[in-house]
């Protein structure tokens, strides 16, 4: 089993464990805010399962029907996660509304808060694992899962403080109010996940810093060529696709031009091991006198 599949499987196990703890906290207290926290954990389990499936699909090699590979499958998991986060927020708002109309005193709040605190601590550790490993392996599904868990941790801390405040002040109305605030935070988190995933599905270019680095590499390692233009980039999961036109002197042989292309590809892959580089060689009369000048 690959490292990514191990992490995705771990997410599913962690999600089920945390869901059980958070529901236990709600069952002990009857808190609407803690119930909202448990509802979000149901989303965590569903999205962890989706991430596991899409990570498996993304790892499949290219085939006749998918010559560029299956890397974009992870974006579908992230899109599903964003949509389900928003659905969870709507359910929480519904519970918060009913709780606001009929606020009730909490049962065994300290015991429930301790159980919920244990679940929050587990989520805090695991979201750090997901975000760091998602960045390291450039996995949109794992990174999205990690950022969602981070928002869950923040919500859980806010819920715990609110429930504690409701107990100390005797204001039962604070419980559903906190649930509503959690729902708003979850909507914001879901929107962020959807926005990032849409960029991947729409073939958005790599970040500006990476584009500048690619242009610098081309300029420094294309000795013998004249210029490079029409540099295009896009991400597909862990893979970065880079394409550009390379202008060479008209009298240069095919072998010499090929050597320059090999040198450029090696230099770019040294910067990004997951890069797929496509270079179109053109004679000097095709120069645009724009783009990347070769040093």
TrEMBL record:
It is found in: Cell membrane. One of its GO terms (molecular function) is ferrous iron transmembrane transporter activity. This is Protein p34. It is a multi-pass membrane protein. The chain crosses the membrane at residues 44-63, 75-93, 113-131, 152-171, 177-194. The keyword Ligase does not apply. SUPFAM superfamilies: Cation efflux protein cytoplasmic domain-like (SSF160240), Cation efflux protein transmembrane domain-like (SSF161111). One of its GO terms (cellular component) is plasma membrane. InterPro entries: Cation_efflux, Cation_efflux_CTD, Cation_efflux_CTD_sf, Cation_efflux_TM, Cation_efflux_TMD_sf, CDF_Transporter. Its main location: membrane. Keywords: Cell membrane, Membrane, Transmembrane, Transmembrane helix, Transport. The keyword Chaperone does not apply. Residues 210-284 form the Cation efflux protein cytoplasmic domain. It comes from Rhodoplanes roseus. Belongs to the cation diffusion facilitator (CDF) transporter (TC 2.A.4) family. Residues 11-202 form the Cation efflux protein transmembrane domain.
């Amino acid at each position: 089993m690959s490292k990514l599949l191990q992490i995705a499987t771990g997410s599913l196990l962690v999600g089920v464990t945390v869901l059980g703890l958070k529901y236990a906290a709600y069952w002990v207290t009857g808190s609407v805010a803690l119930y909202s926290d448990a509802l979000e954990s149901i989303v965590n389990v569903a999205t962890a399962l989706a991430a596991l499936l899409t990570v498996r699909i993304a790892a499949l090699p290219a085939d006749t029907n998918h010559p560029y590979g299956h890397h974009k499958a992870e974006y579908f998991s992230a899109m599903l996660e964003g949509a389900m986060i928003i659905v969870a927020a709507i359910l929480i708002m519904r519970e918060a509304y009913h709780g606001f109309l009929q606020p009730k005193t909490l049962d065994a709040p300290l015991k429930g808060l301790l159980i919920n605190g244990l679940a929050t601590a587990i989520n805090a550790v695991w979201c750090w694992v997901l975000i760091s490993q998602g960045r390291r392996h450039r996995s949109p599904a794992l990174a999205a899962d990690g950022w969602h868990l981070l928002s869950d941790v923040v919500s859980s801390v806010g819920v715990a403080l609110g429930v504690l405040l409701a107990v100390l002040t005797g204001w039962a109305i604070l419980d559903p109010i906190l649930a509503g605030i959690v729902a708003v935070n979850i909507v914001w988190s879901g929107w962020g996940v959807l926005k990032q995933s849409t960029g991947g599905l729409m073939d958005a270019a790599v970040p500006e810093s990476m584009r500048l680095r690619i242009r610098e590499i081309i300029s420094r390692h294309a000795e013998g060529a004249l210029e490079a233009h029409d540099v295009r980039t896009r991400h597909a999961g862990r893979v970065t696709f880079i394409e550009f036109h390379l202008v060479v002197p008209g009298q240069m042989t095919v072998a010499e031009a090929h050597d320059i292309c090999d040198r450029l590809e090696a230099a770019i892959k040294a910067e990004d091991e997951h890069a797929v580089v496509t270079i179109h060689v053109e004679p000097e009369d095709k120069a645009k006198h724009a783009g990347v000048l070769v040093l």
